[in-house]
Amino acid sequence: MKGSLRNAGLLGKVYSAGDFLYKEFFKKKEDAEEQYKNLQPLLKITFGQSGRDSKEFIGLLQALLSLTPIGAKRRNFKRRYIDDKDGWRKLPLEPAEIPYGHWW
To answer: Which domain of life is it from (predicted)?
Structure first.
């Protein structure tokens, strides 16, 4: 009984890690762009209600950051739009307008 529970726990950890890696490395550009279009307008609303340092606003920024591919594009996106206090204001409404090297 204990062995099967331990194996089930290990299987759950392996599944979670595999699911995370799949999502990080095999995201679809179309899905990311759709989510971006939903999240981007919420930034101004959340900023107006809660401010730049609120958990909600930071969560939105992190959600946008997670949509970018791992690597240089994510670092560039983070440096330009997340780390800069006013960088979020530069985010275009359409993800296709984000400069090369910062998005898909």
So the answer is: Bacteria
